[in-house]
What does this fold into?
Amino acid sequence: MHDRIESIALDDLGALRLRGSDAQRFLQGQVSSDVERLAAARTMLAGYHNPQGRTIALLRLILIAPDEVLAILPRELAAVVCTRLSKFILRAKVKVDDVSADLHIQGLIATDDAEPLPESAATCVRIADAPARWLSISAAAGKTASSGDREKWRSFDVAGGVPQVYAATSEEFVAQMLNLDALGAIDFDKGCYTGQEVIARAHYRGRVKRRMQRFVTYAALDCAPATSGLFTDGRAFKIVEAVKRSDGACEFLAVCALSARDEAQADSASLPVEVTPLALPYSLPE
It folds into this structure.
């Protein structure tokens, strides 16, 4: 590995392998992104949803070969998603396996303009440009040491407005609540997929009033995905992803109403949380 590349073990991530001549075609009917555009060297963010349009898991799709796709997701969801996908294979020429235990997943961050030099046995794909970040995937048997802090990787996701779905938040949020349309993880021109009707209706028939937004607390606070509460303006929120800063404050992504006027005031036994809104690096659809 290049000396100017920081490596971070992402042991909480797992992977599904979809292998067979219908691998991409099968995924095209299951997830919200256009899998036909999946290409080598970069990942594709895709939402896997239930019939009500709520996100079961977010998948980072990687094209390994024309008949093989890896789907990276939280390890705690891998077995559940593998089972659910397998129920819909029917006559498709594809096999879905949970290969989480067989792979070692690392995050790579460039400290300058360096490009990673992966080992010959590793697959290395770029996932972000600012800062430049990659996923490196190799056999677990050849696991290499990582020096970086897992929270640093998470902090870049929070700053970039990139959501994650965990067991505690699976099937909690409709796709647009996680800004998947703004992140290019929904294709409104592709064919049908599970949850497509609800997701399309939200897109074409009206403004989505609850969206994932970015905040930082004024005071030190412990927060984690699925934590719920109220802001001081009366808006209810639920945390999607969070990271603790060096000063003890919590920076987080949470789904809440875009403005206080979009939501009736709610009662809560807990004290309201005082926060500062932070900008997202992308615009939300009107």
Remarks:
- Helices lie at 23-28, 75-86, 150-159, 196-204.
- Residues 175-278 form a domain with the Elongation Factor Tu (Ef-tu); domain 3 fold (CATH 2.40.30.160).
